[in-house]
Request: fold
Amino acid sequence: MNIDTGHPPETAAAGLLARAADRLRRFFDSDIFHSFRTSPVTIAAFVVTMVCFVAAFFAPWLAPHNTNDVATLDLMNAFLPPVWMEGGTWDFPLGTDEQGRDVLSAIMFGMKVSLIVGFASVLFSVVLGVGLGLVSGYVGGRLDHFIMRVADVQLSFPAVLVALLLFGFAKTILPRAVQDDVALLVLIFAIGLSNWVQFARTVRGSTMVEKNKEYVQAARVIGRRPLAIMFQHVLPNVMGPVLVIATISLAIAILTEATLSFLGVGVPPTQPSLGTLIRFGNNFLFSGEWWMTIFPGVALVALALAVNLLGDWLRDALNPKLR
Amino acid sequence: MLAFIVRRLFQSILVMLAVGFIAFSLFNFVGDPVNNMVGIEATIEERERMAKALGLNDPFPIQFARFAGNALRGDFGQSYRLSVPVEEAIGERLPATLELVFVAAVLALAIGVPLGVYTGLHREGAVSRLLLTTSLIGISLPTFLIGILLILTFSVWLGWLPSFGRGVTVNIGWESNLVSWEGFRSIILPSVTLCLFQLTLLMRLVRAEMLEVLRTDYIKFARARGLTSRAVNFGHALKNTLVPVITITGLQIGSLIAFAIITETVFQWPGMGLLFLQAIQFVDIPVMAAYLCLVAFIFVVINLIVDLLYYVIDPRLRLDGGAARAH
Reply:
């Protein structure tokens, strides 16, 4: 490709590398990275989040046991305590449950389900909320009034209740045969639908500011269609706060999923999430096998807290007023 | 003011109609109710007669109007699972939930507001920092996990408090946990579980509002006039933080009722929430519909009261004619 200019091909690669390095250096010089580097709490939160992600998504390779494979279970290993208590072994560092399942591996596989549901439902809320907020703010008038009234009403009901109702509604409508197959989708849908309002409100607010700016007028003058203006011109300029809300929503979504699964209306028992593990472990609380409940609980709280802290930091770092 | 009330009332009625419509449409997805009521050998004529008697052949708006009329009188039909009228099943469990919510709300207010004032006044103190850090963890702890931890600590390890059910209740017009110590012991853990989240929320809210108010000129002026810090802090500052506190408290009572579902499941507390959850699991539609309508009604009433309270508390709104506050 560089034959015309007579340069050897290495320079192109070198140029690319140099540009990448430049980008990287600029990132490391940026305010955002500086505020990240100087906040030990944020670094800790980032490390915890990363550990959770890696543990969850590489669970099939990292986990000491495959809890999805019933053949590897041995009832002789049931109710083993964690390794530091009497009777615990290094084979099962955090103990085992009533069927001899390794608690640590179960947590890793469960976290994967929790994270998938969390991410998917936040993605759904973002698409729905940002879309509605953008249209609401740009078009205005009756449509705006209607969307915002619906948002108001929904906001006066707690998200858990909305998700629970939607789940109950889906359970009524869907035939029993397919319920377990689509339970995960229904859950994602229910949690996502219970969380869109914040996105819509924020995006609507910033859209109303943006739509009077000159670049939007210019786009209108050169004859771009409203939809193109909304999604190509206004959208990139209102996405900043969305990132912050999405991070905090992720923590909320993970907790909501855990709550619903704990109540027994969430993920099917064949795909246990952290909430399901806590629910099963809860049955053995009184017989003294506390590790089946507490360790999944600790994992859940650590994940939610770390994501929350990252969200807090992101909000401060992206807020120009605080710089 | 009157126009505002009328508009809010109108909105509330619209919300109730929408919720009622959702509740009503639930019934339309569970197959043919006639099939559930007649025997296998029923002839087509018998089925027709049954459908007519139940009004199933009427047009949709009439059926909905009938449903709404019955709902207004508190008649939601029979529970599929319990085989008792729904209003009876809910009426039996309503006091349990309301008592739980009441105790939790009182706890959250009685502890959250003073802690908020304290952390607002001593913002750099060690105790304040400890409280704020703890509250951050409190927000990340889901309700059901708090319940489990409390049970593990106070019931399993220490053995001080009962961990499930209402225990001993005394009949004072309804079955109550609040009049005897034995009964009160049972309500302690569930209500603490339920109130913790609201408590941290209130504390952070009051703190933020106090910090805001303490910076204003009239507080500086009050100090310059030589008023005692007690009079400034509580008479001037705290009073002006009350508007958002009341809004949030009102709205949070609604979410207390919703979160009671979780608390009641953890503690097997025989309230409305547990009934609703079981109704979802067993697809007991009359109970689901009734719970939906009842909770929506409570929410709407609370929202209405909160809006009206603004006027009582904040004299500035009465001057504007309320146009600014009506969204």
The two ends of chain A are 45 Å apart (CA to CA).
